[in-house]
Amino acid sequence: MKARKSVRVYDPTFSIPKEEIEEMIQMATSAPSSSNLQPWRFLVIQDPEVKKELRAIANNQEQVETSSAVIAVLGDHEMYQKVEQIYNQNFAEGHMNEAITEQMINSTRRVYPQISTEARKNIASFDAGLISMQFMLLAKEKGYDTVTMGGFDKEKFAERFELPEGTFPIVLIALGKAAAPAYGSSRLPVNDIVRFI
To answer: Which residue intervals define the domain Nitroreductase in the entry (predicted)?
Structure first.
């Protein structure tokens, strides 16, 4: 945690194999998730020409183009549609019995469609934050650097990458090898942000 910094200057000649990025994402999926519905989706952008296009959508941020890859973290506000797949897998792996599996599937199918789209987007965004942080810590552990970017045109992004119905962009993570040290940053004192009762 202390070693990870937001790096904005990357070595453009450095590349990370697709298999290693897949492995990091797989490991990061151990993050907590509301009702275990795992509403996170990912678009990994490595093609130099596509990254150049993305840079224009992302307020001309240099790291979009010079990093090894940009991980677009997306949310699926129709996440409850995968409830049977998820809970049947939980049952198959021995995490819960058949009765609880059925109960969870039925409860999710009853409750989630009644929740507003905005509220489901908030759930997906929160879960995306959890998995994004895990991914960045894993990347640092493997010797890579990252920075999250919320400053991009989400409408243009969704249009350019033809995101499926129900899927929306949340954050971009540049991933690569630092070519210059990151700036340090201060944090508010604990007494300013915590209240014990």
So the answer is: 2-177
Whether this model's pTM surpasses 0.90 = yes
What's the CA gap between 41 and 70, in Å, rounded?
14
| Domain-wise residue ranges, the chain | 18-193
Whole-angstrom distance, CA of residue 111 vs CA of residue 136: 32
Instruction: State pLDDT tens for residues 104-130.
Output: 999 999 999 999 999 999 999 999 999
Binned at pLDDT 50, 70 and 90, residue 43 comes out as very high
